[in-house]
């Protein structure tokens, strides 16, 4: 009985159980609500029950749902698919009654709470178990090791704690394991020889296991966003079939092992945001399949390899390191390969005798700066007619900018905003740039320029538009920015000549979230963007998103989570409290991000004439979650029925952000 993907509503009638010979019942992607009827347990021949992406719930007793209890009569049930329903229950122990038949059990995003029952180990024939994005807590039971036929096991996005049970190592048929985004800790077991392993965003710590090289079949390993603090073991080089290795956002230290060049199948290697030091080994040039490489935000030094796969990498792969050098296209210093030996000796003497004295001077200066900041802590950013030049930047002259933009010719005009205009330019060395010229007749533009210089000059992140240099005279101020050849997200959403598929939109919004995370938590002084909208999300050639236009960004002092301001963000994207009172915090950006999420996947602006005081964008999307999500989403991006659940989850996140 196939009725999936309609707009059927109301409750599922008990009378459906009168079809006693029914083997397949698929009611997913509808608008059914209310309790899942226990009468479904009377369908003794039932093999497939698919109810995912509705608004169904269950009647819960003290211990478990009565619906699950009723299924003990369904001895032939192989597929039980309930994802994206607010079941609001605990995992039932009565599932053990289906131990001989159940092959797939999916309850993703069902508000399931409590512990994982030890009875889970009795599901002898289970092939795919998906418990992701729920509220499961406690530890993973050791009985999980009894699932001898399991192939895919997903506990992503719960609150599980404790170590990974060693019994998982005995699951020889398991090829996909995801425990990401939990609170698991302890050392990493080296016995998980599984094709794809995702343990990211947990609390794993200590050393990466030295005997990890004994794994023979693993192809994807994601250990990012944990607390590993060891060197990278050279035994990684023995992983001949590994294609994806993600170790970013840990506390790894020491050098990059030469043996990593032996992982000849590697396609993605991300070591960014660690404390890795030393040189990038030339052995990595042998990795002919390597397409994505990232060692940014480390303390690497020396020459960047320039052959093999390295000819395809950009500056983003190497940004924010200690002393890397190489090709100008990588935006690093040129290498100095011919330093005389006596100069090296002089340098050593400088470190031995001069640096300690110089260090003392730095400490004194730092104390003076700290004292002055403390003294002026209660004052706002000063607004002056001629700001102090930014000494760390190599300034560019008005003549050079005029030459780069052909006299700010209209053919190079890219767009305008509340504080100025943007032109495309080509610098003398051939670098394409975007030149943001601020309106000289607006006092507010000078405030924006001062703030933007200060903020952007301190920020380096792969998803933020980079400031290359700036120009400042009494009557002319401009920023020279990294040029984004694919234009803005707004262009791609609303132009008939451009289109973004579902995956591209998801990746873009992940990029924007990454940028906001860095602005808010990446350094001691959090930065509020204040004007997040599609026109300020720019795309490079690979459609990687870069957040730009910090014209009304605010610096928040440490311990000062909110600051009054006279500047306002764009109507429709700003938090109501911000618009009414002129008060902002990092929450303002979260709110704007929620609105941006809705717009990106519905292709409708928050200022659309369709909306009114009675029906704004938030209310429209919220209503759609109960009346049919397909009524609001952009029809150009949904092709398969599985994609409906993705859109629904994204819209729920958007509402949470903008609540």
UniProtKB/TrEMBL annotation:
List the Gene3D superfamilies hit by this protein, alphabetically: Phosphorylase Kinase, domain 1 (3.30.200.20), Ribonuclease Inhibitor (3.80.10.10), Transferase(Phosphotransferase) domain 1 (1.10.510.10)
Give its localization: Cell membrane
Q: Does the keyword Glycoprotein apply?
A: yes
Q: Does the keyword Chaperone apply?
A: no
Q: Which UniProt keywords apply?
A: ATP-binding, Cell membrane, Glycoprotein, Kinase, Leucine-rich repeat, Membrane, Nucleotide-binding, Phosphoprotein, Receptor, Repeat, Serine/threonine-protein kinase, Signal, Transferase, Transmembrane, Transmembrane helix
Q: Which reaction does it catalyse?
A: L-seryl-[protein] + ATP = O-phospho-L-seryl-[protein] + ADP + H(+); L-threonyl-[protein] + ATP = O-phospho-L-threonyl-[protein] + ADP + H(+)
Q: Which SMART domains match?
A: S_TKc
Which InterPro entries does the UniProt entry name for this protein? Kinase-like_dom_sf, Leu-rich_rpt, LRR_dom_sf, Plant_receptor-like_S/T_kinase, Prot_kinase_dom, Protein_kinase_ATP_BS, Ser-Thr/Tyr_kinase_cat_dom, Ser/Thr_kinase_AS
**Broad class of where this protein is predominantly found:** membrane
Q: TM segments?
A: 350-371
- Which parts of the sequence belong to the Protein kinase domain? 408-659
Q: Please provide, alphabetically and separated by semicolons, the GO molecular function terms listed in this UniProt record.
A: ATP binding; protein serine/threonine kinase activity
Membrane disposition = Single-pass membrane protein
Name of a matching Pfam family: LRR_1
- Binding-site positions, ATP: 436
Q: Which GO terms describe its cellular component?
A: plasma membrane
The EC number(s) this enzyme carries = 2.7.11.1
- Coiled-coil region: none
What's the protein name? non-specific serine/threonine protein kinase
């Amino acid at each position: 009985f196939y009725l999936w993907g309609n707009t059927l509503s109301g409750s599922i009638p008990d009378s459906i159980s009168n079809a006693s010979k029914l083997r397949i019942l698929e009611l997913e992607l509808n608008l059914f609500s209310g309790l899942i009827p226990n009468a479904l347990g009377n369908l003794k021949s039932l093999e497939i029950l698919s109810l995912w992406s509705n608004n169904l719930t269950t009647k819960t007793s003290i211990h478990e749902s009565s619906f699950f209890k009723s299924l003990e009569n369904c001895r032939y049930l192989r597929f039980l698919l309930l994802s994206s329903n607010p079941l609001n229950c605990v995992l039932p122990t009565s599932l053990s009654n289906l131990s001989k038949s159940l092959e797939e059990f999916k309850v993703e995003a069902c508000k399931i709470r409590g512990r994982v029952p030890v009875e889970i180990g009795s599901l002898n024939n289970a092939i795919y178990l998906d418990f992701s994005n729920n509220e499961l807590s406690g530890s993973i039971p050791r009985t999980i090791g009894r699932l001898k036929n399991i192939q895919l096991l997903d506990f992503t996005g719960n609150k599980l704690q404790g170590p990974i049970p060693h019994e998982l190592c005995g699951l020889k048929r398991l090829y996909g394991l995801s425990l990401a985004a939990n609170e698991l800790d302890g050392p990493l077991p080296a016995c998980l020889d599984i094709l794809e392993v995702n343990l990211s965003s947990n609390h794993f710590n200590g050393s990466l296991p030295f005997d990890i090289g004994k794994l023979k079949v693993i192809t994807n390993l994601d250990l990012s966003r944990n607390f590993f603090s060891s060197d990278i073991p050279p035994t990684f080089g023995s992983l001949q079939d590994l294609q994806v290795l993600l170790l970013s956002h840990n506390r790894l230290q020491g050098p990059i092992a030469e043996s990593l060049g032996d992982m000849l199948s590697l396609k993605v290697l991300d070591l960014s945001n660690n404390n890795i030091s030393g040189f990038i080994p030339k052995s990595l040039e042998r990795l002919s399949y390597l397409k994505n490489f990232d060692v940014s935000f480390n303390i690497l030094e020396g020459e960047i390899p320039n052959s093999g796969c390295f000819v395809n990498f950009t500056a983003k792969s190497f940004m924010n390191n200690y002393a890397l050098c190489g090709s100008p296209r990588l935006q690093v210093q040129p290498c100095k390969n011919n330093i005389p030996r006596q100069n090296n000796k002089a340098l050593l003497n400088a470190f031995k005798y001069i640096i300690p004295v110089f260090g003392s001077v730095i400490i004194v200066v730092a104390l003076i700066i700290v004292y002055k900041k403390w003294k002026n802590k209660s004052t706002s950013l000063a607004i002056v007619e001629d700001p102090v030049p930014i000494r760390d930047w190599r300034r560019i002259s008005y003549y050079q900018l005029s030459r780069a933009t052909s006299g700010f010719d209209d053919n190079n005009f890219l767009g305008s905003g509340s504080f100025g205009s943007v032109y495309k330019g080509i610098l003398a060395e051939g670098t394409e740039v975007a030149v943001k010229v601020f309106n000289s007749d607006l006092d507010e533009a000078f405030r924006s320029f001062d703030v933007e210089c200060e903020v952007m000059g301190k920020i380096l992140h792969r998803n933020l538009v980079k400031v290359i240099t700036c120009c400042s005279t009494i009557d002319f101020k401009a920023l020279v920015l990294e040029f984004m050849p694919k234009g803005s997200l707004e262009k791609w959403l609303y132009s008939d000549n451009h289109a973004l598929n579902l995956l591209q939109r998801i990746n873009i919004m992940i990029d924007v979230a990454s940028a906001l995370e860095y602005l808010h938590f990446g350094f001691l002084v959090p930065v509020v963007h204040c004007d997040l909208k599609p026109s300020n999300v720019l795309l490079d050639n690979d459609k990687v998103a870069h957040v730009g236009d910090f014209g009304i960004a605010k610096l928040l002092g440490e311990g000062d989570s909110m600051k009054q301001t006279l500047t306002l963000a764009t109507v429709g994207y700003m938090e109501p409290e911000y618009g009414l009172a002129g008060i902002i915090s990092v929450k303002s950006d979260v709110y704007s991000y929620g609105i941006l999420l809705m717009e990106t996947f519905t292709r409708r602006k928050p200022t659309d004439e369709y909306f009114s005081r009675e029906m704004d964008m938030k209310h429209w999307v919220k209503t759609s979650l109960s009346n049919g999500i397909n009524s609001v989403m952009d029809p150009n991006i949904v092709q398969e029925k599985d994609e409906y659940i993705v859109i629904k989850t994204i819209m729920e996140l958007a509402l949470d952000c903008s609540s």
